[in-house]
Amino acid sequence: MTQTGIPILTNDVSDVPKRLTFEEYRFYQDNTDTRYELHRGRLIPMPTATALHSRICQFLVYCLREYFATTDQNLIVINDVGVRTGIDSSRIPDVIVFPPERWEILCSRKGAGVLDLEETPNLVIEVTSENWRDDYILKRAEYAMINIPEYWIIDPNKKRVRILTEPQLEDGYQNQEFVLGQSIQSKQWGNLQLSVDKMLSPPIVEDLIKAKKAEFRQLEQQVSEERQRAETERQRAERLATFLREQGINPETI
């Protein structure tokens, strides 16, 4: 089991049970680093993420955390947490958004970190890779079935972002597609500004943090200078008032 609590499995198929229950999946352990999802009782190996895949995920986590913090919304953004999508199925989205109280419950629960069926997240995000068909077809159906209100598919190969909403529709999600030169439009967070260009080719998060720190230091400097100017003006006014009083003039009557 990884440090995040997601089950891992040996590549020796002789050791693999034919099917697992959800509870068996949550507590399955071995000594490899391979991560698996669960689909109808069968373990599905997850491909090793590319560098670009990881960079996109880091960027999305950073941007969403900043957005929810600055807009004072009680939501957290996590990756490597599972979402149960059926009796014997569970997925591991690249990014997931849900209320902090569910995170506290999850952290106190033994076994793998997986949100159960009644713990529906607000948003899941998948960045496509070799198993892109799963993101567009299988996971779309599973996420709609458990009424996840919003599902983003980030596709670096096709240079597009799809936002899927309204899972209650007869055929599942309604989708809206965004391409290079556009900014996404979230149904839940209408003032969230994320350009497709940056989502598909994101800056390094550490550079963004450095830029924010520099901006904060500049703002602090401006505030300090404003306070200094205000203090200088106050002292000047006091000296002038003292001079007028020495001349027999009440400065308050001027």
What's the layout of helices and strands?
Layout: H1 22-27, E1 36-39, E2 42-45, H2 51-70, E3 76-78, E4 82-86, E5 89-91, E6 95-98, H3 100-108, E7 114-115, E8 123-127, H4 132-145, E9 150-155, E10 160-165, E11 174-179, H5 196-200, H6 205-246
Parallel strand pairs: 4-7, 8-9
Antiparallel strand pairs: 1-2, 3-6, 4-5, 6-8, 9-10, 10-11
Describe it.
The protein is α+β, with helices and mostly antiparallel strands. The chain folds into 2 domains: 49-203, tt1808, chain A; 207-253. 38% of the residues lie in helices and 19% in strands. The chain has 6 helices and 11 strands. The chain has helices spanning 22-27, 51-70, 100-108, 132-145, 196-200, 205-246, and strands at 36-39, 42-45, 76-78, 82-86, 89-91, 95-98, 114-115, 123-127, 150-155, 160-165, 174-179. Strands 3-6-8-9-10-11 form a 6-stranded mixed beta sheet, sandwiched between helices. It has a 3-stranded mixed beta sheet with strand order 5-4-7, with helices on one face. The chain is elongated and about 100 Å long. The termini are far apart.
Short characterization:
The protein has 254 residues and is of the alpha+beta class. The protein has six helices and eleven strands. Helices cover 38% and strands 19% of the residues.
Key features?
single chain; about 250 residues; alpha+beta; tt1808, chain A; 2 domains; six-stranded mixed sheet; three-stranded mixed sheet; about 40% helix; elongated
